[in-house]
Amino acid sequence: MEELKYVGKSIIKDDTYDKATGKTKFICDMKRHNMLYAKLVLSEKPHAEIEMDKSEALNIEGIEAVYTYDDIPHVLYNSHEWFAGGNQYKDEYLLCNRARFVGDRIALVVGKSKRVVEEAISKLSIGYKELESVVGIKQAKENKAIIKNDSNVAFSKSINCGDYEEEFKKADYIIKDSGKTQKIHHSAIEPHICLSEIDEHGSLVVWSPCQTAFQIQYHVASVLNIPFNKVRVIKAVMGGSFGGKGQTVLEPICAFAAYTLNRPVMLYMDRKDAILGTRSRNATEISVETAISKEGKILARKIIADIDGGAYHTNSTAVAMAIGKKLFRMYDIQNQYFQGNSYYTNTIPGGACRGYGSPQAHAITEINIDNAAKKIRMDPCEFRLNNLVKEGAKDPTGGTDIGNTKIRQCVINGMEDFDWKNKRQNIKTKDTDRYAYGVGMACAVHGNGYMGAYPDFSNVDMSIFADGSVLVKIGIHDQGCGTVTTMQQIAAESLDINVDKVRVLEVDTLATPYDSAGTQASRVTFVCGGAVKSAGENLRKKVIDSFCKLKGYSEDDVIASNGFVYQKNSDKKYSYGDVAVELETKHSQSMSVFERYESPANPATHAASFAEVKVDKYTGYVEVIDLLAVHDIGKSINPQIVEGQIQGGAHMSLGMALLEEIDIDKNGYVKSTNFSKYHLLNAPQMPEVRVMTIEENEPFGPYGAKSVGELAAVAPAPAVLNAINFALDTNITIYPATPEVVMNAISNKK
Amino acid sequence: MARFEAPCTIEELCNSLKNKDNNTYIIAGGTDLIIHFNKKGIFGYNIIDLTKLKELKEINETDEEIIIGSCVTMTEIENNPLINAHVPALIDAVYNLGSQQIRNKATIGGNVANSSQSGDTIPVLFAYDANVEIIDPLGNRRIEKVENVVEGLEKNNLNFDEVITKIIIKKNNAKSAFSKIGSRKAVTISKLNCCVKIKINNNIIEDSVVYLGAVGPKPIRAKSIEEKILNKNINNIVSADIHDAIYMEIENAIPNRTSKHYKKSAAEGLIDDILNKLRR
């Protein structure tokens, strides 16, 4: 391959300076003439019919409106459904008269200032007629109280390959484990917010720090019964999402208020609202049985995943499938049965959360793999190397091909760098009466988009102007992870022009062409990046072709490089802009292309994490001393961004391992409504995360690139639990492994 | 209309207190009060801000006492050599209290007045048998034991128009240490905390005071732990020796709470930390 000029370079992200100096304008910094503020009133009861007396609130000076179920269009939608053909079960109203969880939207208060809005909310007289509620998977399964339709089962499906029952009979050992994972709040530093107004063209505009602008357009248009072509959604600067801003929770009701009042409305949330009233990572209970031979080969596996879908259907179908499908794409298991069951409960609805099912899928199965290795006294890395998928493997269930995976290399390189064998053998010599030390590792798999399951394509409009500057219009949403810069680098590389000449827009449904699935599913670098590369290559070709046509050269004699095109033997160089001007003048054409790009593949992306822990046997504190994350990413478009993604992902995964949990009591009330009760791993507790990448080119990815941001949040958690279990000789399978859980495991061992 | 008063002299403070009504709140650092307002949805309140009173921001000593103004911040305490020399456990307590931003604002008087069951300076002040000076609207000053002012669960025994002006700690030649257990290592609220104050002669513990915090509305004196360490050589005690005493104290303090099982074992780690600190 020719040497790359822009791809593979750690170019500083385009928004760095403005963010570091505080110049960046987030939605909460935006002001509009005559703008109103709005806040949702969230149910304080897990399941109740609502009656509301809003007269006192309406009497407060400056209050413009208090909306309840009676005021809104009674059109149901599914906040997770990202396109009109999604065929998802619709069960949400903008505001409800029967609250289904603590945090459900029951009213919207609109006024001239935040102060009056907050005061009016305190003056609302809300009558709750309480109904029996269902909390947790166990209660949902019992079906004693049924909260929706005729069963609490929201979705159930099995995925199967081979004949696991037959193989179980032949097995030398069957290793069984079961465990559970928690509901997680995404903890983006910016709470959810949006702004809606009517613009000069008569469009109903929604500004939102979102992941799927076309999804919002679809929901606003269909719920408010406004033509799609009059709804304009603009992705605003975002203070983090991690999947939490993927569903349409605030935007339709905010748009409704702006449309009804004909004034700009900013709907804001505080941390409590964001924890209670948006979405969470689905809690799961997973049981796994693995049949192995005494030589260390996995013969068959059976996995049952029960999923807490929460109070609305949202992603109940999608997350069950996501958990299941991944389990067929890491180990070479020809006989495997997976069953995923999602349940309705009166708790926070489920949504995407960095990894979409992968953190849950691996949480228990990777502990089970360690236990399988332990059963035959084999090193867990060696055991994995016996069973991991190889390059070019097929998905045994007929899914998309695994691609050029280097997971085995991840494990081998990681073992060496971590000094695995030595540490695994000798770490216990560090033990004291109080502290136990351990090392553990885990592997993980994730995808690269929706190809094989849902429509996955993007459209790009790319132009070169007279001054040689380039505008790339594509419906991307930068979540703070450098997507814009990544696309700039790909555009610059494919056009062969300086990256500073390239401007990449984020999605504005009026300005950027349609994109099928938004910034989710780890699809953006792989699919949208592929689209930009393809568009750039075609536009560069157009520059060369036009130049040849205008000047009478043959293509073989022409070079296009660094934004200039010229005949090999000539000193006269023409900028791409010069060619654009001449093309327009002489041939009535613009120097632009419109590219429709359909994803060609959906390979697996793999990683391995290695962790060393120090466990305090008196207090149950776990300190992660060392963490090594090894990722097969095909090719880093921007190594510094990749490193940041892997370190940030590790932070979330360690939080899942040790601390984070939306704490819901047995009656459905949420106890962790702020960051003093919802514990994130903070700086003093965070280890240095060492990052290794393996870059061996994925043929279908742009410049060989595969996904990284979501996968980064998967393997560290089970690696840490394996390390704790190795340190203590326990079998903790509960997330998070809080000090209490650790102390319980120690005392149960005695 | 909301009223905001920031008295600069004691006389002005007394005048403000004379007009104090049920909707007037006294603010020092505000790190608990503002959260309280937000949580309870309190609007249109009046404020008396104590932080402009110079007298309340000083740390002084006499021959017998260390006197800490009630508006001295945790950060100021942490960096004060006088307190480091005489009340080392207080340094431990403020060092790990909240985040740096909280420590820069939060005050010792506020920590006492707020009387949280998880308050970190409170077991230390109890262990030192500290007093507070309290002023009323007429300018009368009275001295009261911290132990009598703190009721716990965010209630104190001050009259509604009284203000704590000083924390008074008697000097002595004791060694002391404080440690806490939260959900994580730093920026965490105590699930359990402890202050041990001892006198040592030739490595032998001659006098011992032990307070456990966050096991009830306010810190409790753990006499059985005190007895276990009395007359022992500081270098030879291991936490296992006092295991039974620790378990008994927790059992007695919170017999009906499920958290007692965890707190028992965690308390052992806590005492181990403290013994290590006392050997420094």
UniProtKB/TrEMBL annotation, chain A:
- SUPFAM superfamilies tied to this protein: CO dehydrogenase molybdoprotein N-domain-like (SSF54665), Molybdenum cofactor-binding domain (SSF56003)
Which keywords accompany this UniProt record? Molybdenum, Oxidoreductase
Q: Name one Pfam family in it.
A: MoCoBD_1
Q: Which InterPro entries match?
A: Ald_Oxase/Xan_DH_a/b, Ald_Oxase/Xan_DH_a/b_sf, Ald_Oxase/xanthine_DH-like, AldOxase/xan_DH_MoCoBD1, AldOxase/xan_DH_MoCoBD2, AldOxase/xan_DH_Mopterin-bd_sf
- In this chain the Aldehyde oxidase/xanthine dehydrogenase a/b hammerhead domain maps to 21-132
User: Which superkingdom?
Assistant: Bacteria
Record PANTHER family: ALDEHYDE OXIDASE 1-RELATED, XANTHINE DEHYDROGENASE
Q: Write down what this protein is called.
A: CO/xanthine dehydrogenase Mo-binding subunit
The organism named in the record is Sedimentibacter acidaminivorans
Organism classification, top ranks? Bacteria, Bacillati, Bacillota, Tissierellia, Sedimentibacter
TrEMBL record, chain B:
Its keywords, alphabetically, are:
Flavoprotein, Oxidoreductase
The UniProt record lists the FAD-binding PCMH-type domain at 1-174
Enzyme Commission number(s) of this protein: 1.2.7.4
Q: Which domain of life is it from?
A: Bacteria
Question: SMART domains given for it?
Answer: CO_deh_flav_C
Instruction: Note one Pfam family from the annotation.
Output: FAD_binding_5
Listed GO MF terms: anaerobic carbon-monoxide dehydrogenase activity
Do the record's keywords include Flavoprotein? yes
**Record's Gene3D superfamilies?**
3.30.465.10, CO dehydrogenase flavoprotein, C-terminal domain
| Name of this protein | Carbon-monoxide dehydrogenase medium subunit
Source lineage: Bacteria, Bacillati, Bacillota, Tissierellia, Sedimentibacter
